[in-house]
Amino acid sequence: MDQRVPGEPIMVSPPYPSTQPPHENRAVGYALLFVATIIWGINWPVSKWLLHELPPLTLRGLPGVFSSLILAGFVLAKGQSLRAPRGEWGKLILYAALMVGFWMGLMGLSLVHLPASETAILGATIPVWAAGLAWPMLGEQLSVLRVIAIAMAVGGVVLLIGGDSISVSWEKMPGIAYALIAALLFALGAVLAKRRPIALRPLPGAVWQIGLGCFPVALIGILFEHPHFGGMSTLGWALFGFSTIFQGAIGYACWFAALERLPASTAAVGTLIVPVIGVVASAISLGEPLGIPQIGALVLTVTGVAIAARS
């Protein structure tokens, strides 16, 4: 399965023929992939901390709008065009809604109810659900390995639900539901993008999808959450800038540059470091629990994603 899904990715399946990257570019590709995944992993506790300063939809949508503008400038500086063919706008809007808008909004709401580490683990299940959806939608065989991958991901979710007391578990249910719905919708968008690719180069396609997906989330947040930007601390603005510049612009620029040098399946497996970094960074920076349920769920999910990406 041509899976291009990082921890918090945009999946664009351009109709250009793929080529094996030259050997000398592999090292650069791995370095770029490493930078992107480290940034995305760290952004999970960053987003959780920002909830003290901004409401969830605002903090998830607004940085993405600014990131798309920065990426647009980067694309133009490279001499590429941002123009999308007229017949591609329907797909762009649909994929932006599934893989960006709902992802950003629902994951922001999930962070309200869950620790950042557990949200990162649930978000990392995207490739597993995509592998399952590819069976009825793309006719890809649901092999034994894919069934095992789905079972392991479900096992990880069960561990997160039942790892604590019943009362705490029920308190987590809204957050788990938001995260799983976000992951499923993202997987649906990924499979649809594979079935009907966008006739646009990856980076310009990402600019449009990030912008189109994040703008309504940010608008809803500003209109209904009434964020108080004047009351934000210096640290809050610094973390907001990190989400905008590093998580959004630099992270995606490194990701797509890595895809130009590495096979997509290799890049997808490489992003398994995202939930690992997210869990560890959340434990260190936020003091979130890192016990048997979290470690067990992380191991099950990461292993299941690796199997799904390779099956």
From TrEMBL:
Q: Which InterPro entries match?
A: AA-Vitamin_Transporters (IPR050638), EamA_dom (IPR000620), EmrE-like (IPR037185)
At the top level, the lineage of the source is Bacteria
Q: What is this protein called?
A: Inner membrane transporter yiJE
Membrane topology listed for this record: Multi-pass membrane protein
Entry keyword annotation includes Transmembrane: yes
What the entry lists under Pfam families is as follows: EamA (PF00892)
The listed locations are:
Cell membrane
Please give the organism.
Afipia felis
Membrane-spanning intervals of the chain: 27-46, 58-77, 89-114, 120-138, 145-163, 175-193, 205-224, 236-259, 266-284, 290-309
Where do the EamA domain residues begin and end? 29-161, 174-308
Which key words are in the record? Cell membrane, Membrane, Transmembrane, Transmembrane helix
Cellular component terms (Gene Ontology): plasma membrane
Major subcellular location class? membrane
